[in-house]
Amino acid sequence: xxxxxxxxxxxxxxxxALADFCLQPDWLYSRKKDLRFLSxxxxxxxxxxxxxxxxxxxxxxxxxxVFVTHVGVDALKLRxxxxxxxxxxxxxxxxxLVLFVLAHELVRLTTLRCVVPAAYVPAxxxxxxxxxxxxxxxxxxxxAIRDFEAARPEKQPGLPQAGRIIGQLExxxxxxxxxxxxxxxxGFLVAAKSVFRFGDLKAADERKESEYVIIGxxxxxxxxxxxxxxTRALLARL
Length: 238
Known about the structure:
- This protein has helices at 3-21, 26-29, 35-52, 59-81, 85-109, 121-144, 146-149, 162-179, 186-203, 207-235.
- The chain is mostly helical.
- The chain folds into 2 domains: 3-116, no CATH class; 144-229.
- The relative contact order is 0.13.
């Protein structure tokens, strides 16, 4: 694909990350089984893609494609996949594949181009990767370890939302370290969390709780690392 196609794809990915993880409040997410709310969500995606094209030329075609495919993929996920990590991965991969093909074909067959100045595209791609690592990771890890939740021992409640905030911070740090070519420092981050999080668990001999935390931590670090390297690969083509 040409550099113009990669730039358009990168901006489309940023728009997708914004619509899926920043402009999808809980009240909308919980009502997506209703076609009206699902359509509203798809329309947000379509309009952001149109904004990337400056609402020029045949931008309505791009909006229609994004709207139909996004609503269709989400409906399939809700109908057959439900709330599972596998369904979440299928959903995101399918959306990104559609955006990749759309960017390629728009550049190849039309005069539509990204209206975002080329100098700003890498920053948008990096921001999109950060959103995926931090916020998409929150949903994915939560779904992936849900089956282990019932096996956890009863514990006294800690700080409100502390686990979620810790997870977001650690994935953000891992992402930035890989992007800055300092992946080796991730080992120190793992060690630091082990000292503060696992020390009391070992003393209390709470094996199930410690295993639960370790599984979640490794998934979180692994996902952030994967997204970071994928973002670096995209930046190398811009």
